[in-house]
Design a protein that fits this description.
Layout (H helix, E strand, L loop, with lengths): L2 H34 L4 H39 L2 H28 L1 H8 L5 H14 L2 H17 L3 H5 L1 H15 L1 H22 L2 H5 L14 H17 L1 H13 L5 H36 L3 H28 L1 H9 L6 H14 L3 H16 L4 H25 L2 H22 L7 H27 L6 H25 L3 H20 L1
Helix pairs in contact: 1-2, 1-8, 1-13, 2-3, 2-5, 2-6, 2-9, 2-11, 2-12, 2-13, 3-6, 4-5, 5-9, 6-9, 8-9, 11-18, 12-13, 12-18, 12-19, 13-14, 13-16, 13-17, 14-17, 14-20, 15-16, 16-19, 17-19, 18-19, 20-21, 21-22
Amino acid sequence: MTKKDNAVKTIALMMFISVIGKILGLVREMMFGYNFGTTSMEGTAFTYASNLPNQFLDIMFASSITSSFIPIFNNHLENEGKDSAFKLFSNFLSIIIFLAGIVIFLAAIFSMQIVNIIAPGLDLQTKLLTARLLKIVLPVLMFSGIAFSMTGVLQSFGKFNITSAMSIFFNGVIIFYYIFLIKKFGVYGLAVAFTLGWLMQLLIQIPFLHSQNYKFHFAIDLKSAGIHEILKLMLPVLVSSWVMPINNLVNSNVASYIEGGANALKMANTVYIIVTGTFVLSVNNFMFQRLSKLKANNSQTEFNSALKISISNMFYFLIPLTFILMMFSTDIVSILFERGKFDTAATNLTARALFFYSIGIVGYGIQTILNSSFYAAKNGKIPLVSAIIALVINFLLSFTLVKFLDIGGPALASSVAIDFIALFMLVIANKNKFINRKFLLKIVKIILASLFMSVTVFYLYRLLPTSSIFLFKFLSLAITCLIGFVVYIFITFLFKLDEAIFIKNMVVKSLYIITRTK
């Protein structure tokens, strides 16, 4: 089996595991919508309380701490051996535990002040409940830092599958709570389940670290050369990784003045991340490790080739996905959430947010890959500058557009910001001239194929009989989108795009194996 086949197999398995986790995440949000809707005080309070650790840490630690730590860890592993790398890891974990402990303590004391900053538009009773729930979920600050650091180490040893499965355990804990305990313990118990879910993501990785003969020793050594390198890279990485979570917090701040706005944004963003993140994060997690090692080995030609392929894949898969999400935003939200306390009004509000979030899908994928390429090269300056630009754009547009587009305003502001920095970083990364006439022509072909696919699925979906039955509605939309995907691949194959040719060869190879087996 070739290296390319191994890479495809690894990414495919990661995506499969990630899809399971994302589906469970979707079920989790469906249960949230059923129990709390978008306007209940308990649901609103939990959304704001969980947003701080969920938005900041899920992205901050996954993207920033691992992005600054793993290149240095890989360098120690390659040049100084496992013992040196593990010593650096223990030192890094010790610093995270110490700093997280201080932050948790201070945040618990000033929980009400934090709530006033992130959700000024809430009434006093909802703010008080949010502050209480925030104190319960604060340990996630520490759990997530440790968990994502472990993830980076395990991925350095090629253990991608267990790290991809982390969300399965997290969502499993919360779904179990919804099914068996929500009526007894309510929203306070949900906050506890949320915290335990994060703890579970940490605990499941420990046996796999032990299999690499790792033993943790609490020791803080700020004089370590490795720590100095990490800290030097971490500041720009931290700031740049805060683009999406800070944008989300700014948007939530604006949405606190709209009834049901915070939950609508959260659930729209959940659909956005589940649909887009499954592909983007699976490819990025794998490619970051590869890019880091190629850079460490000074394989610049292979590095450039891998980056070009990754960016091309993002355009190929995310442009048609953008068309689909924008076209079917209302249908998707209705099928997924409209039940229990989640009514038609909640569907329309959430679908509006999803429509405008979808405009940023391609930008999200491109900037994620480019961020990784800069971090792998130990260049945090470009992501830092990009992050600052994005924050300013989102802040200004969010408070302006909400006046004209209501809940769509902050969602569109986030999309414009992410698309702009993706373009900005793409221009800078193009010093190797991989964006040429041929590359631009390929994007034009992708857009044309996506438009033709959109017209096909639009009329096909409306030709199908309507029904209020969930399964029928789901199957109608799923079959329509599947046919649209086949049409898209066929057209891009006629355009002789590499991705379509690869998919065709994979299908032919699979059919050949099946027929031979029979």
